[in-house]
Specification:
single chain, alpha+beta, five-stranded mixed beta sheet, 7 helices, 14% strand
Length: 162
């Protein structure tokens, strides 16, 4: 994960330079060391302090830097208070750019993870289930056991088994 973090921070250095010209840069500077971080086991890139054009460039730079070792990466796009739909303007920018990249790479996908995060999934087997939306086999086993316990309790209550 550390290698991914360093690779994406380096790839986004031009975005940091471009972000210095934003009107709010003195109050809320966009820096790779504060906006490109690790939240185990994933690299998370916080775009919500960027204008849409810079955010689109950031996504392009990340894609060009290559897929993450963890099988997924998260982009924080914010809530979109002044926009309609999940993620607002930045959410649309990110999902559009990722969607284009995913269409030419079998196995890649994009997924909204709550209202403020967009996941770039490059390997579902390595990506955490919190990002892919799959509970994995452990969840399937738990659901099966709960169903079995319910059926046994129902059979016992109706007198089918003692």
């Amino acid at each position: 994960m550390q290698q991914d973090l360093e690779r994406y921070q380096a790839a986004l250095a031009p975005i940091q330079a471009g972000a210095k010209g934003q009107p709010w840069a003195k109050e809320r500077p966009w820096r790779t060391r504060s906006h490109v971080i690790c939240e185990a086991p994933l690299v998370v890139i916080d775009l919500h302090d960027l204008k849409a054009k810079l955010a689109a460039k950031a996504v392009a730079e990340v894609i060009a830097a290559g897929p993450p070792e963890a099988g997924a990466l998260l982009f924080i796009v914010g809530q979109g208070r002044h926009s309609k739909g999940a993620g607002g303007v930045l959410g649309k920018v990110v999902t559009s750019a990722l969607g284009k990249a995913c269409s030419s790479h079998p196995g890649w996908s994009v997924r909204l993870v709550g209202p403020a995060r967009v996941a770039w999934i490059t390997d579902r087997r390595r990506a955490p289930s919190s990002v892919t939306g799959g509970g994995g086999q452990s969840l399937n086993l738990l659901l099966f056991l709960l169903l079995l316990a319910f059926l046994l309790a129902l059979a016992h209550a109706t007198g089918l088994i003692r």
